[in-house]
């Protein structure tokens, strides 16, 4: 989190706006004040926002109307900061799409902590949503799409072959014994019959060699097992 994190502060009271902006900036984020619902709408249309701090009682568009508009523009987390402390108002705002609700007067440290908490959650969600693509030399494996490419050309693998390669590429420095491989891929206890692993490994190596002649992808570590060739 840094100054590239942009927070829109929608608050018509000049002193409270300055205070909220200072809380945001003290945490290392960029704050943009908006003093009415109408002004907030202009900013919402100009760029994406990482978070919105929103008062409900605003000139121009009301806070509730701004909240509806926020949900149309990328759905960043919204923290309501309002003098309206009645339970029904809080519930209505939270049901209307707000992520949090703080009643004025507020504690500065609590507001700061809640901002950090919401941004961490969004950051974690964004990271977990990013697809992981494994690469080794000129080999690319996409676990989500279940595809493997060598030099940009697709390689057709069976489900077991794909799972073996995925396991090796996910831990490129690890040496997998045949029992490791069998129990990880087949999900059953390894009882010493290594023929199943040998056949699938042989087929996988053959397909990789055909895709990239002269390149060795998987090496046998004698007496131990297999790993990606460094």
Automatic annotation (TrEMBL):
It holds the Pfam family Response_reg. The keyword DNA-binding applies. Residues 131-230 bind DNA. Keywords: DNA-binding, Phosphoprotein, Transcription, Transcription regulation, Two-component regulatory system. GO terms for molecular function: phosphorelay response regulator activity; transcription cis-regulatory region binding. InterPro entries: CheY-like_superfamily, OmpR/PhoB-type_DNA-bd, Sig_transdc_resp-reg_receiver, WalR-like, WH-like_DNA-bd_sf. Residues 131-230 form the OmpR/PhoB-type domain. Residues 6-119 form the Response regulatory domain. The modification 4-aspartylphosphate is found at residue 55. One of its GO terms (biological process) is regulation of DNA-templated transcription. It comes from the Bacteria. It is found in: Cytoplasm. Signal peptide: none annotated. The keyword Transcription applies. One of its GO terms (cellular component) is cytosol. This is DNA-binding response regulator. It comes from Paenibacillus rhizosphaerae.
